[in-house]
Amino acid sequence: MHARLFHLHTLSALHCGTGRSVGVVDLPIARARATQLPIVPGSSLRGVLRQEIGARDADLERTLFGPRTIKDNANSFAGALAVGDAHLLAMPVRALAGILCYVTAPFILRRYARDLADVGLTTLEIPSPANREHALVPTDSVNLLDNNTLVLEDLDLGAQRNALTLEWARIIAARVHPHETSGQTDFIQRFAILPDDILGYLSETATELRTRISIDQDTGTVKKGALWFEEHLPAESVLWGLYALSDSNEPGKPKRADALAQALPASPTLLQLGGQAGVGRGLVRLLTQEVAA
Amino acid sequence: MKMRAHHVAKAAYACVEARQNEPNKKKYGAIAHKLPGMILQNGLAQATGFLLAKGAGASEHLMLLDDLKEVLRAGGTVTVTSGEALHREIIAADLAKTLKYTRAALEASGWIKRYVQGVLRVTATGDDSGEQEG
């Protein structure tokens, strides 16, 4: 089993939901139970990948995902591809200077660094803001007011320019925009490491909320009761996760994991994930170039 | 020992149930449905400020602000005794208190919304849920 890293970069608002909720939002996005940080469930990504791969190569789909229906034990086998949940790495938040800021936190970076190390990629020391009212930004940040204040949504945070933060911004930018210098620069100049508490708060309150209605065809007005709130991860969010490939388990069709990896969609791949595809939601770039050492 | 959520739910239930015979209960219910979204989209200070401002001409807004205050009191978040005092407390809050008040207000407004649906039977568009088609 070879663990590999993937990244998701949302190009439009993304709604990977959990169905109708009893909470504050009618249709919330999926979150990790313990941290309440947004996730894209591995099952969502796996299903979309199965459809994508199956449309062009039914044999490869069978090898990677297993048979679609299992008629008997003799014909059943496990797929060679396992896809984990994608976790929030950086989220765009409204900023008074620089329009938006891609925020993360030491709590998130520690888990990201662990996964980077697990697949043999370089990692760095993780800097922490001085206290719960301060943020760290790269040396060339465009998000600061008066050179020392970062205003995100309604929060005024003290900010400190920091070289290690710049290095983290570069690491993430290189993975999300591998062939695009302007995309990397945009990300690096708008990156910030926030205190864990502030990031947790923003991940709950600064997601995108869309109000939806349904129109009564006869009257042309809103149907009775048909008004609801949907939560989305905003466009330009970055998530990461692990996937793993094993050698083929398909009886009589041996294939090495490395050969299967070569057959996966070229990175980056444009996918549609989650709900509300008809209204333009869920366009993501899947980046899978990181191969285990 | 009682769970904190139960204190909040009990207070929210009592507040909403007390609105059962209000002549403007449908308008109250429609705003209650929107309150959590309003807090998320505009921030707690703006949301409570909106209820305070609109309350001058439409009392259901002040009714909701007062109920929000009651539920927050029951959860031990604030000790203020009026809706206006709640708004003042919110705009005077420092960063740590803002995080705390916002999370508590989201929880409280979620419970109020739930009981508006379950007890008042008012939908998000201010209609009686018994009149809904389908």
TrEMBL record, chain A:
InterPro entries: CRISPR-assoc_RAMP_Cmr4, RAMP_III_fam. Keywords: Antiviral defense, Plasmid. Residues 8-285 form the CRISPR type III-associated protein domain. The keyword Hydrolase does not apply. Transmembrane segments: none annotated. This is Type III-B CRISPR module RAMP protein Cmr4. The lineage of its organism: Bacteria, Pseudomonadati, Pseudomonadota, Gammaproteobacteria, Chromatiales.
From TrEMBL, chain B:
Keywords: Antiviral defense, Cytoplasm, Plasmid. Pfam families: Cas_Cmr5 (PF09701). The keyword Cytoplasm applies. Gene3D superfamilies: AF1862-like domain. It is found in: Cytoplasm. The keyword Transcription does not apply. Coiled coil: none annotated. InterPro entries: AF1862-like_dom_sf, CRISPR-assoc_prot_Cmr5. Belongs to the CRISPR system Cmr5 family. This is CRISPR type III-B/RAMP module-associated protein Cmr5. The lineage of its organism: Bacteria, Pseudomonadati, Pseudomonadota, Gammaproteobacteria, Chromatiales.
